[in-house]
Design a protein that fits this description.
The structure holds 2 protein chains of 2 kinds. Chain A is mainly beta. Chain A has a single domain, classed as Lipocalin. Chain A contains 1 helix and 10 strands, in the order E-E-E-E-H-E-E-E-E-E-E. The longest helix of chain A is centred in the middle third of the chain and has 8 residues. Among the domains of chain B are: 135 residues, Leucine-rich Repeat Variant, CATH 1.25.10.10; 171 residues, Alpha Horseshoe (Leucine-rich Repeat Variant). The longest helix of chain B has 24 residues. The chains are: A mainly beta, B mainly alpha. At the A-B interface, strand 2, strand 3, strand 9 and strand 10 of A face helix 26, helix 28, helix 31, helix 34 and helix 36 of B.
Chain lengths: 195, 670
């Protein structure tokens, strides 16, 4: 989700940590699937004010072989925008094969990685989400999507917890989403198949 | 006009050919033959003109007469004269057959082959050469007769040619074998007769001889594990070493043919061409040959595709030697010949079939535009190859999301190709459409607007199962995350009757896609459930029937997701599903398939079944307690309890969810 650029944060350091953790790939998780929708909030509070935006997320596709997923994110009560702001994001599944815990890009140092991952329970699938572009507003809308999210997914109830990371924004902006079942009284599933 | 020029007009020359009254004799005949031969060499227009004038049968009759005269006891001068006439006649016949199908037909119809064959045993080496060269031209054509080597006389004839010291004759033998060898039995007969050994010994000859032998070796080995193994063992690997050396020959055509031979060995008897080193070398040689002009450059991409087919490691090797850059740079040249273009696109399609890195390399607008342009090519094979290329590029979710392939014109073109008179093109276009419609509302909308849905529905009723299968998959993918308006539109075009008949299709894979389409229809859309229950529940009945038949795991999984999605709906929807799963008032309290599904080794089938019960026991629903009681009576709760330690975490979590819901309902009742 786009945030306003804010002065802050610790300078990045490179400790040169390179080793993989050897963590086994996450188990298959039916709630982490294409078509699944989530809803909740992102805390975008700064030193100046408390603020939270309502957020809706939809996973549009998952490619487990390549540890890739993608989807859209919709922020609902963005003060600078007349309408909800929708972005397209791409995700990396930390599976120890395609992607490791160490981000190695987006100005995130290994220390940043450790600081963020350690806030999550150890057994959940972990992901990084990076918004790639605005779907329905221009880049001059006064918002930025320079950062990315450290995300933890709960297989048991499909809830998502995350932290937005951007060295130029307030640290540890929390993302909390609940899985939307889909049906009026239960969980629905849909799928596609690539040929 | 000078007399000699007037006499060299095709009509005049043709009139002087032949035997008997009116035809030229002796030196005049020889001159006429020589003049015709000189005029037609390399000149297709002249060849066609002389064909039209009926020159071929006349020249063949001259050849026949001269050959007969030459073989009888006659004086030295006459025989010498006959030899000269034979040489010119044979050369002219060979030239007519070179690269002109009508010419080959005329030559064959005139009965040239037996006469040319008869002069192969002539005393005069020049006559033998002329006969052999002429026959080689004929045997380059598909129209040439095939020699069945299972007939002893044919085999003996070929072996006699192969034993000759004359290179033209041995090359002829190689041509005949390459042209005629079709069946495993023929391959074995040739191998038993020692033909492959002889070819290996001839690999040290001239370039033409090498090439002829290589083509024949490939024909004898192709798809024959026994013959290929025997060849590979020849001389303790001497044969394979000879081929390996020839992939570095100075002539590109020889390098290509040597690669093809090794590829043929590798496919027929993989253990002999197993080492990555030799395969990597083959990749490198073929990638270099891509840039050769003419036939070599045309054929190299086909050989590359065959070599790397389904082999991810070789895809990586090809990527590392810049295969994609080379293929793309050739693609960007102006006026690429159709055969080469087809080969390039097929090679690119193969490279994109597995590796994300390869797909991403093709995502430049320039390259994509060229591939899209190829969709409009006159040649059907090029259109098919372009569709296959697009299908494989769009196996990448990342590429699909990038929106590069969203232009209206492009999707419209694919839909047009689904109407193509050629079934191969239709199938290929559908393949590309199946992937293109995923994940992008814009592309879905374009497809719907340009009449794509009605065409997909039409093709879903085709007698051809490949067309049915791909069109149903495309409809399924179109339905995924479609909005309610589009879902209703698709269903209206498809009709419940057609959907039901697809669920009952004779092919399991089509049943599965139709069920998945139904599941996607109902997903997140309680309004759509009414369609599944409409017309006396024709769709739900079909789903249940197929679940009971359980023709494949995939069918069962998708069927359970349909039920699960319906069970996420209203109270009445849940009861409907419940009544199908656990029919009331039945004597047997154990439903046949649900317990079996929960006990399945297939994780996804267990998961799909469990979600159905999650939805049926939703504590927020009024009738859930009632349903739990029925599940208890049916033994399903007991089955669920036995799954508390399911090896799959996802299943374990759902089982716990269901049992917690049951307990919550029990507590609420108490």
């Amino acid at each position: 989700m786009p945030v306003r650029v804010v002065e802050s944060s610790t300078p990045s350091q490179d400790s040169g940590l390179e080793s993989r953790t050897g963590r086994p790939p996450p188990p298959s998780c039916s709630l982490l699937s294409a078509g699944r929708a989530f809803s909740g909030t992102q805390n975008v509070s700064s030193l100046q004010k408390d603020e939270a935006w309502k957020v809706n997320v939809r996973i549009q596709g998952i490619d487990l072989d390549n540890g890739y997923l993608c989807g859209t994110m919709e922020a609902l009560n963005v003060p600078l925008a007349d309408t909800p702001v929708v972005t397209f994001w791409e995700g990396e599944l930390v599976d120890g094969n395609n992607f490791t815990f160490f981000t190695r890009k987006w100005e995130a140092t290994p220390e940043d990685d450790i600081r963020h991952w350690s806030k999550f329970p150890s057994f959940a699938p972990l992901l990084r989400w990076k918004e790639q572009y605005f779907v329905n507003v221009g880049i001059d809308c006064g918002l930025t999507i320079a950062g990315f999210y450290y995300v933890c997914f709960s297989c048991s109830d499909g809830s998502i917890n995350g932290f937005y990371y951007d060295p130029n924004s307030s640290p540890f902006q929390k993302l909390e989403l609940k899985c939307i079942p889909g049906g009026c009284s239960g969980y629905t599933f849909s799928s596609y198949q690539l040929l | 006009m000078p007399a000699s020029a007037a006499n060299n007009r095709p009509e005049d020359l043709t009139a002087r050919l032949g035997v008997g009254a009116g035809a030229a004799q002796g030196e005049a005949l020889l001159k006429a033959l020589r003049e015709v031969k000189n005029q037609i060499i390399g000149n297709k227009t002249k060849k066609l003109l002389y064909l039209h004038l009926g020159a071929v049968p006349k020249i063949v009759s001259v050849l026949a007469a001269a050959a007969a005269s030459s073989s009888s006891d006659s004086g030295g001068i006459s025989r010498g004269g006959d030899a000269a006439v034979i040489v010119q006649a044979a050369a002219a016949i060979g030239s007519f057959a070179c690269g002109v199908e009508d010419g080959v037909r005329a030559v064959l119809d005139a009965g040239a082959v037996p006469h040319l064959t008869s002069i192969l045993s002539h005393d005069d080496e020049k006559v033998v050469d002329a006969g052999a060269r002429s026959l080689k031209m004929i045997f380059q054509s598909e129209l040439a007769p095939k020699y069945d080597v299972l007939q002893e006389k044919n085999l003996n004839f070929i072996l006699s040619l192969l034993d000759s010291d004359n290179e033209n004759v041995t090359e002829l033998a190689a041509s005949i074998i390459a042209h005629s060898c079709e069946t495993n039995e023929q391959q074995k007969a040739l191998c038993d007769a020692g033909v492959l050994l002889r070819f290996v010994s001839l690999l040290g000859g001239s370039s033409n001889q090498k090439d002829g032998c290589l083509e024949s070796i490939a024909a004898v080995i192709k798809n024959n594990p026994e013959v290929s193994s025997r060849f590979s063992c020849t001389g303790n690997g001497k044969a394979l070493n000879a081929l390996a050396n020839l992939i570095q020959d100075r002539y590109p055509h020889t390098r290509l043919l040597a690669c093809k031979c090794l590829i043929a060995v590798g496919h027929a008897s993989p253990c002999y061409v197993e080492e990555l080193q030799i395969k990597t070398k083959l990749v490198l040689v073929l990638v270099e040959l891509l840039e050769e002009p003419g036939r070599v450059g045309n054929e190299a991409p086909f050989s590359l595709k065959t070599l790397i087919a389904d082999d991810e490691e070789l895809h990586k090797q090809a990527l590392s030697v810049n295969a994609i850059e080379k293929l793309c740079s050739i693609l960007q040249m102006s006026s690429v010949q159709a055969r080469r273009l087809q080969g390039i696109l097929l090679a690119l399609a193969e490279l994109c079939s597995k590796l994300e890195k390869c797909r991403c390399q093709l995502m430049s607008p320039q390259v994509l535009n060229l591939i899209v342009d190829a969709l409009k090519h006159d040649c059907m094979d090029v259109r098919v190859a372009a569709c296959d290329c697009i299908r494989n590029i769009t196996r990448s979710l990342k590429n699909l999301s990038a929106g590069c392939l969203s232009s209206e014109a492009f999707i419209v073109r694919l839909v047009q190709l689904s109407h193509d008179p050629s079934t191969s093109v239709q199938i290929a276009a559908l393949g590309a459409l199946c992937n293109i419609v995923i994940n992008c509302a814009t592309r879905k909308s374009v497809l719907i607007k340009c009449g794509g849905v009605s065409q997909l529905v039409q093709l879903s009723k085709s007698m051809d199962s490949a067309l049915r299968s791909r069109s149903v998959l495309a409809l399924r993918n179109l339905m995924f995350l479609a909005d309610i308006t589009d879902k209703e539109f698709i269903l209206k075009e498809l009709t419940l009757c057609t959907l039901a008949s697809l669920i009952y299709d004779s092919e399991c894979s089509i049943q599965e896609q139709a069920l998945a389409l139904t599941s996607d229809l109902v997903d997140g859309c309680s309004q759509s459930v009414k369609h599944v229950l409409a017309e006396d529940s024709i769709i739900l009945d079909a789903v249940m029937r197929q679940l009971q038949n359980a023709s494949s795991i995939g069918v069962c999984i998708q069927g359970m997701f349909v039920l699960s999605n319906i069970a996420a709906g209203s109270e009445s929807d849940k009861d409907t599903v419940m009544n199908y799963l656990v029919p009331p008032h039945t004597d047997s309290c154990i439903p046949s398939f649900t317990i079996k599904f929960l006990q399945s080794k297939d994780i996804l089938l267990r998961v799909a079944s469990l979600w159905c019960f999650v939805n049926l026991t939703d504590p927020a629903s009024v009738g859930s307690s009632r349903r739990v009681a029925r599940l208890q009576d049916a033994g399903i709760v007991l089955q669920l309890k036995s799954m508390l330690n399911d090896p799959c975490l996802d299943c374990k979590l759902r089982v716990r969810m269901i049992l917690e819901q049951c307990m919550e309902l029990e507590t609420a009742q108490a």
